[in-house]
Amino acid sequence: MSERIYIFKRFERFWHWTQALLIIAMLITGFEIHGSWRLFGFKQAVGLHTAAAWALITLWVFAIFWHFTTGEWRQYIPTLKNADAMFRYYVLGIFTGAPHPFRATQLKKHNPLQRLAYLLVKLVINPLVWASGLALLYYPAWHDAAGAPALGSVALLHTLGAFMMLIFLIAHVYLATTGHTPLAHIKAMITGWEEVE
To answer: How high is the mean pLDDT in each 10-residue block of the chain (197 residues)?
Structure first.
């Protein structure tokens, strides 16, 4: 037997999908700037990439404000409690029909492994992308400073951050299909309502 509970508020859903679209746009344009393919042309790709970056930074500022004013930041406090059960479920249980070891609620939306993954994104990947991206954008202003890193080193760090974000995105999309139906979690992030056993 299952019940429907309202998990994701309107701003969370807006923030989630807008962030996803901006990150995908930045990955597409960023890899074009890097020379991986050609869709828009270098100059237009740089312009689109920069515009998406500023839009994403603006969104993150609003999201940080929203998380702190609503108390939703607590959803991301990491815990190792039942992390082993979640790991076993993702490695084996999901393929054998084992029951899901975590039940989402309004107060605990993310399982322990999600919390750790989001912490990695917020404390490692995002700052790496932000810092290296802004350093690249404003390279002419600081490149002559004493001890300044070479442009190639900064670009390499930004590309590393992009690949880390791409890996997170792929894993995130895959795990989003592991609900009781392949689209259950995606539907919940569209409507806000999650069906839980």
So the answer is: 88 97 98 94 97 97 95 92 93 90 89 94 95 93 81 94 97 91 92 87
Distances (CA, A) of 160 to 30, 60, 123, 165, 197: 12, 20, 15, 9, 39
The helix (run of H) or strand (run of E) holding residue 5 is strand 3-6
- The pLDDT of residue 196: 77
Enter the tokens of residue 29.
């344009």
Residue whose structure tokens are 């059960």: 85
Helical H segments across 71-183, by residue range: 83-88, 94-96, 112-120, 126-137, 139-142, 151-176
pLDDT of residue 144: 80
Answer CATH for 3-196 from 3.30.750.210, 2.60.40.1220, 1.20.950.20, 3.40.50.2300: 1.20.950.20
